[in-house]
Design brief:
The chain has about 70 residues and is an alpha+beta fold. The chain contains three helices and three strands, in the order H-H-E-E-E-H. Strands 1-2-3 form a three-stranded antiparallel beta sheet, with no helix packed on it.
Length: about 70
């Protein structure tokens, strides 16, 4: 899904990710630009489609630990 550009914090707020947990989430970057945020998925720009990362051999998988 194509999403308009917005700050990562905005994505996290919309996903209702607790503030204390946000700094622990993985962010994939290309040339210092965030392109994929787990659990949001692809962000606008280079990774507007999931194929942008999987073509390079990356397939992000994120699972919440039972201890969280």
């Amino acid at each position: 899904p194509n999403r308009p550009q917005k700050p990562i914090n905005k994505w996290l707020q919309e996903m209702r990710i607790p503030p204390w947990w946000r700094r622990h989430l993985p962010v994939f970057e290309v040339e210092n630009n965030p392109v994929w945020l787990l659990p949001v998925g692809p962000l606008a720009g280079l990774a507007a489609s999931p194929d942008a990362l999987t073509e390079a051999g990356l397939k992000p998988v994120w699972r919440v630990s039972a201890s969280v």
